[in-house]
Amino acid sequence: MTTRHDTLQQSAARHLMLHFSPQRLDDLLVLERGEGPYVFDTRGRRYIDALSSLFCSQLGYSYGQEMAEAATKQLTTLAFNTNWGTAHPAAIELAERLTGLAPEGLTRAFFTSGGSESVEAAWKLVREYHLANGQPRRTKAIARHTAYHGVTLGALSFTGVPRFKEPFGPAPIDVVHVANTNGFRAPDGDDPAAFRDRLLAETEEAIRAAGPDEVALIIAEPVQNAGGCLTAPPSYWRGLRELADRYGALLMADEVITGCGRLGEWFGVTREGVVPDLVSLAKGLTAAYAPMGAVVAAERVVAPLIEGGRPLRHGITFGGHPLSAAIALRTIEIFERDGVLDNVRTLAPHLHGRLRELLSLPIVGDVRGAGFFWAVELVRGEGGARFDAAERERLLRGFLPPRLREAGLIARADDRGDSVLQIAPPLISDRALLDRIVDGLADVLGDAGRHMGLSG
Ligand SMILES: Cc1ncc(COP(=O)(O)O)c(C=O)c1O
């Protein structure tokens, strides 16, 4: 008998194109239902969504009723209006709420439909700012190696993963990539101050080489996702702020992942004690109950446009869709009512402590991250040597995905940088669930080590 599962597999193999995946679809994981932190596939198997559906489902899957009420209210009042020339109450209210949660001075919000759009909108705003200030030559940006800032062609310029860029020709934006904050193998990685000073010196050198009056923007994530949850050494962000100020560039925190509670703050950069000029948000802004992104900008960035009576030459039809805005407003309400940020702040040290236990496995070389956003780096045993390309294929794409499924876990094996396994549980996860995630990882990684011939 052909089951619904089989029908969907066959139909997907014929018609559905997956993002960032091989287009030959065998045994595709098709998820059809969610409940709390769990998702269920078309065979009825349950998984802990330890990745929050690619860092998005901050609240898990049981707020549908409440979100539907907010959606129904909005859709039966005003289904749609743009934020081009006109506006609607939901976008206005959200702009006020969001800027109220932002670091001091970030007073303006521009809405988009997702992360890449936010990064590109921010870049347009940066260019308009410099043009309005009579600095048209500021056309370059500084970003970091291995960082992922999106893959639409503009945003792709900032992304520092060469293999995602090579097929598509020269990048439209001139971006210089500098070292990221991965201290694991860095010669001075054990000395945070020396490490920070070296990174900042390299960034300054890159600015000078690019031409100090040609650099428009420094863009970075407070914790860089690609490469595996790379936290910054103390005062690194202060250093970026100083460099941006010294050379007349703007500073942007790309918080598409680190924002909206992932690090226990609405804006993760708050942890660094620094106010950037722009912040990009997306993914968790609506807890993924609708698609939405935003750029939150400092008053001083928008002021030259206002004072000069200049338009922002950029727009997205569905940017700030009333449905998404209503759901984002409800998400903020739920975060406050249900103490979501407090949950992350309270449980993050426990999660970190439990994850550090994995260091006793020969395949685990490093554990890094913050909040509910963690990576374990996978190594070839004692000494921390890297796996080669064939081994990575065998481990990250051959062994781990089915073994994680068998363990009832969704997590991410990735090698855009070094080999890592990442987790980012829903922000409503309790201690027992976090323990189960770590216990599951311990089993899977124990087997993975044996599979790769590591003893211990
Ligand atoms: C830091 C960061 N910026 C931008 C993006 C692009 O977002 P989207 O996939 O919504 O276009 C991502 C996506 O993962 C991201 O992690």
Gross morphology is globular
The count of domains is: 2
Q: N- to C-terminal separation?
A: 46 Å
Name the strands of the widest sheet in spatial order: 4-10-9-8-7-5-6
Care to count the β-strands? 15
CATH topology of the largest domain: Aspartate Aminotransferase, domain 2
Kindly describe this structure:
- By secondary structure, the chain is of the alpha/beta class.
- It has two domains: 4-62 and 339-451, Aspartate Aminotransferase, domain 1; 66-337, Aspartate Aminotransferase, domain 2 (3-Layer(aba) Sandwich), CATH 3.40.640.10.
- It contains 14 helices and 15 strands.
- It has a seven-stranded mixed sheet with strand order 4-10-9-8-7-5-6, sandwiched between helices.
- Helix 4 (89-101) runs parallel beside helix 11 (322-337).
- The longest helix is centred in the last third of the chain and has 21 residues, at 431-451.
- The chain is globular, with a radius of gyration of 22 Å.
- The termini are far apart.
- The relative contact order is 0.15.
- The mean pLDDT is 97.
- Pyridoxal-5'-phosphate is lined by residues 114-116, 119, 148-150, 221, 225, 254, 256-257, 282.
